[in-house]
Design goal:
This protein has 2 helices and 9 strands, in the order αβαββββββββ. The chain has about 120 residues and is of the alpha+beta class.
Length: about 120
C-alpha cells in the first residue's frame, strides 16, 4: 500500500493556514464555493486562522483552527456544517459537519470552538 510522508500531508494542511480566509456556517454541506458563500450560508467570519501541522490524535497529521467568536448570522435556519474558503481564488477548501446542529436567527451572532482538520494515515 502506498503511503504519504508527513512532509506531503503537512503541505496540504498548510494551504488552510496560507489560503483560508473565510468560514461559513451552512444549512447543508457545500460542494462548491458558491454554495458555501451564497446558497447555503447562514453566517460567516473572516477571523479564521490555523496553527502549524502536527501529529493527528490517532493517525496522520492535523491542523487546529482558532475559535470563532461573535460572527454575524446573516440568514435564519439550522446550521449543520461549516465551509472554509479562499475568497480571492473563489475556492472551497474544506467542509465538515458541526459538532451539533444549531438553529440560528439573522441578526444574531454565532461562535465556534477551535476544531481540528485531520488527514489520516492510510489504514
Amino acid at each position: 500500500m502506498a503511503t504519504l510522508a508527513d512532509y506531503v500531508l503537512d503541505a496540504a494542511l498548510a494551504k488552510l493556514d496560507t489560503e483560508a480566509d473565510r468560514i461559513d456556517i451552512t444549512s447543508q454541506e457545500a460542494t462548491t464555493y458558491a454554495e458555501a458563500t451564497s446558497t447555503h450560508t447562514l453566517g460567516n467570519s473572516t477571523s479564521l486562522a490555523f496553527g502549524a501541522p502536527q501529529n493527528g490524535d490517532s493517525s496522520g497529521r492535523k491542523v487546529v483552527s482558532t475559535a470563532i467568536a461573535n460572527a454575524p448570522v446573516t440568514a435564519t435556519g439550522t446550521a449543520t456544517h461549516f465551509a472554509i474558503s479562499d475568497v480571492s481564488s473563489t475556492r472551497l477548501l474544506a467542509t465538515g459537519a458541526l459538532g451539533a446542529s444549531q438553529s440560528v436567527t439573522s441578526g444574531n451572532v454565532f461562535n465556534l470552538p477551535a476544531f481540528d482538520i485531520t488527514i489520516n494515515d492510510p489504514s
